Each structure stands twice: as structure tokens, then as C-alpha cells.
Amino acid sequence: MASFQQGEDIENYLRRFECLARTWKWPEEEWSYRLVPLLTGQALEAYLAMDEERAEVYTDLKEALLEKFNISPETYRQCFRSTTVPAGESPTETYNRLKNLYKRWA
Predict the structure, then answer these.
(1) pLDDT at 74 > cutoff 90
(2) N or C: which end of the chain has fewer CB within 10 A?
(3) Are 93 and 59 contained in the same domain?
(4) pLDDT by residue (tens digit) across 17-65?
(5) Residue 33 covered by a domain
(6) Continuous H helices in the chain
(7) This protein's superkingdom (predicted)?
(8) What average pLDDT does range 87-100 have in this prediction?
(9) Are 42 and 82 contained in the same domain?
(10) Is residue 88 located within the same domain as residue 62?
């Protein structure tokens, strides 16, 4: 997996990392160790600012990364509430997009 690049969507990057980790059947206890070498820029700064013990826990690392990029349930609430249907988007695509926003919000 390529390193995280500044300007890339951190959430999509983490989702892709998690999918690969499950596919390769890595124990979740190793996820932080495998992710950290891929971090750069703000993502690396978020990791370096963490307590060492907390940084070893993937869920804590993910939380710190999302916080650094200002992604929170409130972010998803606002996106969910202000969403519009782009031209050309099918009802199924709209439903899936709204469902994903709601899952991250709730």
C-alpha cells in the first residue's frame, strides 16, 4: 500500500488500509505498527503527538488521525443534513451515500 499523501482523503485511506488488513488477515494488534510507516505530513504529526501506549492501539490512532483532519460525528451530521442529489446520481447511489453518512454520524 502506498504512503498517505497530503491532500488525500484520510478516511478513505484508512478504510482502504482496514480492508487490506482484513484481507491479509493481520491481527488487529499489528495494525498500528503497519500503518505508522505509511503516514506523512499532518497524519504523521498526529501520530507523533500521541502518547506512546495509546499510539499502539489502532482505534486510538485512527481517532487521533480523524481528529487531526477535523472529522467527527458532527462533520457527518452536517453533511447528512445538507446533502443534495447531484445530477445523474441514481436513487440507489443517493441511498448508499446517505446510509454511509448516517452510519458515521450515529
Answers:
(1) no
(2) C
(3) no
(4) 999 999 999 999 999 999 999 999 999 999 999 999 999 999 999 999 9
(5) yes
(6) 10-23, 31-35, 41-48, 52-55, 58-68, 73-82, 91-105
(7) Eukaryota
(8) 93
(9) no
(10) no
pTM of the model: 0.79
Q: Which domain holds residue 59?
A: 10-68
CA distances from 13 to 9, 52, 86 (A): 6, 22, 24
Amino acid at 65: L
pLDDT winner (highest mean) among 60-69, 75-84, 93-102: 60-69
What confidence score (pLDDT) does residue 102 get? 86
- For 96, the grid coordinates are 448508499
Residue 5 forms part of a structural domain: no
Give the cell for residue 20.
Answer: 487490506
100 within some domain: yes
For the chain, what is the domain count? 2
What own/partner pairs with CB < 8 Å and gap ≥ 24 does 48-51 have?
A: none
Handedness of CA 11, 47, 25, 105 (dihedral sign): negative
